[in-house]
Amino acid sequence: MIVEPVRAFSDNYIWMILNDIRSHCAIVDPGDAQPVIQWLEREGVEPVAILITHHHGDHVGGVRNLVSRFPGLEVYGPASERIPAITQTLVEGDIVHLGELGLEFSVLDVPGHTAGHIAYLGQGALFCGDTLFAGGCGRVFDGTFQQLCASLKKIRDLPEETLVYCAHEYTLDNLGFAKWVEPDNPELLLRDDHDMALQEKGIPTVPSRLALEKATNPFLRFDVPAVIQRAEQQAGRSLAEACEVFTVLRQWKDSEYD
Ligand SMILES: [Zn+2]
After folding, report:
1. Phi-psi region of 135 (alpha: psi -120 to 50; beta: other; left: phi over 0)
2. Mean pLDDT in each 10-residue stretch from start to end of the chain (258 residues)?
3. From the CA of 58, how far away is ligand 1's center (Å)?
């Protein structure tokens, strides 16, 4: 498997999943068709499927144009959200077989950012849309904080070497908030320097490794003593449960950082 980004809007990544001989591909969350079509023409790759994580316009906005341009495309997406031109609805545990690519992905339900958000896991890679970001996580829109916390716990339990392909380049901004939470976390400070150097050269900071997220992303660290302490200080009360810590962090970022 080869994975390459197509950039869209100001900071979206549309991930192109290719077979090793670069003949066919699947397209993850095409919010805009134009940059995808340009990429397909330039690379001479035939698309076979679209994989959608959730219903937001910057993830599905290009679906109709791509389907009319490439009529055989299968469109996979969450069963409980309205996705344009969908041909295959998915729930937790379903397997997506991409025959032409020789690849399979299993489906995880990861609600919270939206109520029906799903992620695709296969070949050591996780395509998680706007659930987990490098250094952060998505906002809560039509899901709940409790759902997003549970979804992030589920992702945290995946193998440490899993590559996290999120849908936006938000990393440096996210790490800024992470430093509010854990100003003395040495791995976080190293990561911040490293990712800043990548961005200065115009290189994506995504994908990241789950092990690095667990070491530096406050939204996967809601049961680390220093993080609990910081969240309790922010809340002005003691927090009995990990998901309360998570909620305080997410609301703090929403109200004072973003
Ligand atoms: Zn979204």
Report:
1. left
2. 98 98 98 98 98 98 98 97 97 97 98 98 98 98 98 98 98 98 98 98 98 98 97 97 98 96
3. 7
- What residues have their beta carbon closer than 5 A to ion ligand 1? 56, 130
Of the candidates 48, 51, 47, 128, which has an alpha carbon nearest to the alpha carbon of residue 88?
51
Catalytic residues: 54, 56, 58-59, 113, 130, 168
User: Residue 207, preceding bond cis, omega within 30 degrees?
Assistant: yes
Task: Tally the domains of the chain.
Answer: 1
Query: What's the gap in Å between 59 CA and the centre of ligand 1?
Result: 7
Ligand 1 centroid – CA 138 distance (Å): 7
Do residues 117 and 151 make contact, with C-beta atoms less than 8 angstroms apart? Answer: yes
| Residue 162 CA to ligand 1 centre (angstroms) | 22
What's the 134 CA to ligand 1 centre distance in angstroms? 15
Residue 183, classified by CB atoms within 10 Å of its CB into exposed (0-12), middle (13-18) or buried (19+), is: exposed
pLDDT over 90, % of the chain: 100
CATH, residue 36: 3.60.15.10
Q: Which domain holds residue 33?
A: 2-257
The upper half-sphere exposure of residue 254, i.e. CA atoms within 13 Å in the direction of its Cβ, equals: 13
